[in-house]
Amino acid sequence: MWEYEHSVETTATPEALWHHWSTVAQWPEWNEGVEKIEIDGPFQAGSVFTMTPPGDEPLRMRLTEVVPGKLFTDEMDAGDFVVRTVHSLEPVTPGTTRVTYRTEISGPAAEQVGPQIGPAITADFPDVVAALVRRAEG
């Protein structure tokens, strides 16, 4: 398995952060890694979304877990490997929230594929989380 995690603490409320996560159509406004996105249903477990990174092919992903105000997990199943990203919110102190993005690549091909694609998938996490925080604090 390959894994990577990035966390930031913010004064943004979990409600403000959650609003930006759950309003999928607005992701391209604050996430430079998303050129276009469409979700086939509500922001809940089982819904599928198609995300197009700038200059790349669209990726189909499924929401596998959604706990409003706390976390959501998306998953891309590529057959011999699965890319799973958990996006979570955790109160640290009154008025402070920790935002964490954690990606795991698992499956039979994970040891081979993970080191190749994992860093590319997660390279923008610091920028994406910073943009989310700025927007939610605003």
Automatic annotation (TrEMBL):
InterPro entries: Polyketide_cyclase/dehydratase (IPR019587), START-like_dom_sf (IPR023393). Pfam families: Polyketide_cyc2. This is Polyketide cyclase.
